[in-house]
DNA sequence: AACGTTCATCGACACCTATCTATATCCAAT
DNA sequence: ATTGGATATAGATAGGTGTCGATGAACGTT
């Protein structure tokens, strides 16, 4: 229960990942666009996206050689609900 | 900006600290009560409380030899606002 | 088939974290 | 003053995390 929420909060506990989520809040974005904006290397971005999608905060859509990421609003609502319960 | 939020989310990214916050949601509690409920040692609890108060999520009220902790709702609202902006 | 681009994985490294035991500090009561 | 209980601090340790460079895999174009 709290372990699950803790995992999602851990995903949110990095400034770069928060920036990524902030970008995704405007809608679906290609990974390459995120990479341009973030001053990290491509493997590091890949690592962050794995964490974000691993806890269900974002979803991936593969199209050819590109990966398009988008927010999972339902997962976000779960978090808001948890905070609201405090 | 995102660095500040990241720090608070990091504070939330531990199951024991989430349990503590959950207990505090019912109102002010003495540290010794939290200790009874958590299956960790007293120094570890002290460590967690330092993190939670360090990022402004909880406040302390010292009374004699006891420490009473309570939630800072304003800080929580800040977080909800951030999640809402996504 | 060969090349270039996008993304993922591997291995390494410095740093951080949760936890413990041991000890110190502070306060109240004897 | 001394004892006892509550909390904080110090030091140690095992495991986790963000980052990188190097490399691999998949895809489209020439």
Give a concise summary.
With 86 residues, chain A is α+β, with helices and mostly antiparallel strands. Chain A is built from 5 helices and 3 strands.
Write up what this structure looks like.
- Two copies of one chain form a homodimer.
- Chain A has 86 residues and is an alpha+beta fold.
- Helices cover 62% and strands 16% of the residues of chain A.
- The first copy, chain A, has helices spanning 2-11, 15-24, 31-38, 42-54, 73-84, and strands at residues 29-30, 58-63, 66-71.
- In chain A, a hairpin with a 2-residue loop joins β2 and β3.
- The radius of gyration of chain A is 13 Å and the shape is globular.
- The mean pLDDT of chain A is 96.
- Chain A binds a DNA duplex (30 and 30 nucleotides) through residues 14, 16, 30-32, 35, 40-50, 62, 64-67.
Helix and strand content put the structural class of chain A at: alpha+beta
Counting DSSP E segments of at least 2 residues, the number of strands of chain A comes to: 3
Residue-averaged pLDDT of chain A: 96
Percent of residues in beta strands of chain A: 15-25%
Give the largest interface: A-B, 26 and 26 residues
Oligomeric state of the chains? Answer: homodimer
Strand arrangement, major sheet of chain A: 1-3-2
Largest sheet of chain A: 3 strands, antiparallel
N-to-C series of helices and strands of chain A: HHEHHEEH
Whole-Å distance between the termini of chain A?
14 Å
Uncertain segments of chain A: none
Q: How much is the radius of gyration of chain A in Å? A: 13 Å
Contiguous helical run count of chain A: 5
């Amino acid at each position: 229960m709290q372990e699950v929420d803790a995992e999602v909060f851990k995903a949110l506990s990095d400034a770069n990942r928060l920036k990524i989520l902030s970008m995704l809040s405007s809608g679906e974005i290609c990974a390459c666009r995120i990479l341009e904006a973030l001053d990290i290397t491509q493997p590091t971005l890949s690592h962050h996206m794995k964490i974000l999608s691993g806890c269900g905060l974002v979803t991936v859509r593969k199209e050819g050689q590109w990966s398009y990421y988008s927010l999972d609003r339902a997962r976000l609502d779960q978090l808001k609900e948890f905070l609201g319960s405090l």
